[in-house]
Amino acid sequence: MALWVDREHGEDGERFITERVLHFDAIGDEGGKLLWMDVARRFVELQGSISATPN
Q1: What InterPro entries is this protein classified in (predicted)?
Q2: What's the N-to-C CA distance of the chain in angstroms?
Q3: In whole angstroms, how far apart are CA 8 and each of 14, 26, 54?
Q4: CA-CA distances (angstroms) from residue 26 to 9, 20, 22, 49, 50?
């Protein structure tokens, strides 16, 4: 899902993910919230690997 967020939302990906986390938190859906928190972690890892300098 992190790849999809990157492809569909690009630089706005973090904002999109934050909105999803807050949405699921607001409706009390702990599973949805945890899912999107995991997507956030993977998205950050993905962004780090994209911007990393090759050896």
Answers
A1: DUF6961
A2: 28
A3: 12, 24, 25
A4: 22, 10, 6, 32, 32
The pair of structure tokens assigned to 5 is 């967020």
pTM of the full structure: 0.85
Alpha helices in the chain (DSSP H): 2-9, 13-26, 30-51
What is the tens place of the pLDDT at every residue in 1-55? 999 999 999 999 999 999 999 999 999 999 999 999 999 999 999 998 876 566 5
Q: What is the DSSP letter of 11?
A: G
How far apart, in whole angstroms, are the C-alpha atoms of residue 53 and residue 36?
28
